[in-house]
Design brief:
A hairpin with a 6-residue loop joins β5 (about 140-145) and β6 (about 150-155). Helices cover about 30% and strands about 15% of the residues. The longest helix is centred in the middle third of the chain and has 29 residues, at about 110-140. The chain has helices at about 30-35, 110-140, 155-160, 180-195, 205-215, 215-225, 230-235; strands spanning about 5, 15, 45-55, 75-80, 140-145, 150-155, 200-205, 240, 245-250, 255, 255-259. The protein is flat. Strands 7-9-8 form a three-stranded mixed beta sheet. Strands 1-2 form a two-stranded antiparallel sheet. Strands 3-4 form a two-stranded antiparallel ribbon.
């Protein structure tokens, strides 16, 4: 199949279209793949969450025949959140279809349904990207809008819990006791979980931090001999366990904005 070579000015000359490349941007979706969040549609503009704060305490001994301690009623809390409105529109004009050659084809014109489906596919990728951005914000505790700066929800404020202080691992110091610092992080998480059980702790980190972490002398030995030397043969950015915590490099940057 050939098409006119209009670039050389002779409409009767032909040039062959040998290949067509559709370069797609990477859409981060690691959290979505892990199934940490479930999606459910609602017919209202707000959602409400009810929470019961269980109270337990040690019971002191009492002399026989005296009144016992009184059980404290469990406090119930109701929280209501407005659902953010995130519209996304597209317009397809006749000029985008009429007389336009189909992508990758030499002599076939674009069809209306093909242009519509391609547009919907691009819009769907933007929706998936936005969902992942909001999931990452929920994990961090600060859900930001798509502009990367406006706060939609501060979950620490919404649920009335204190935001943990940042932890400096001091990776630039060879003598830093990384294991002790990491153990403190794990204990903080366990204390916040209360009676909730967990199977493991997962840490997302960027590539720069991960490289410094696995290069630290205390971590380097464990990293090299992780699962019988897997780190020497495979790319461990997708999961390296140290002190009960799985570290994974999260690949997610859009328009120079890191997730």
């Amino acid at each position: 199949m050939s098409m006119p070579d209009v670039f050389n000015g002779d409409a009767f000359n032909m040039v062959s279209l040998t290949t067509a490349i559709n370069k797609l941007p990477y859409v981060p979706n690691r959290i979505g793949q892990m199934g940490l969040f479930t999606e459910q549609g609602v017919s209202t503009n707000t959602v409400a969450m009810e929470q019961i704060n269980g109270v337990i305490s040690l019971l002191p001994s009492k002399p026989r025949g005296t009144a016992g301690t009184t059980t404290t009623p469990e406090a119930r809390t109701m929280r209501s959140l407005d659902i953010p409105h995130i519209p996304h529109d597209a317009t397809i004009l006749a000029s985008a279809i009429q007389g336009v050659r189909e992508f990758g084809s030499e002599n076939q014109l674009s069809a209306v349904n093909k242009v519509v489906n391609d547009t919907l596919t691009r819009m769907r990728r933007s929706h998936e990207l936005t969902h992942e951005w909001l999931r990452m914000g929920a994990i961090k505790g600060i859900v930001l809008d798509g502009d990367g700066s406006t706060t939609l929800y501060n979950l620490f404020t919404v649920f009335g819990v204190g935001q943990p202080s940042d932890v400096d691992f001091l990776l630039g110091t060879d003598t830093t006791d990384i294991a002790t610092i990491l153990l403190g992080v794990v204990e903080t998480i366990e204390a916040a979980l209360g009676a909730e059980s967990y199977d493991h702790i997962h840490c997302f980190c960027n590539s720069t931090w991960f490289k410094k972490f696995v290069a630290h002398p205390q971590v380097k030995y464990a990293y090299q001999y992780f699962q019988e030397g897997r780190a020497l043969r495979e790319d461990m950015r997708k999961g390296f366990e140290f002190m009960g915590v799985t570290f994974e490099v999260y690949r997610g940057t859009v328009n120079s904005t890191p997730f």
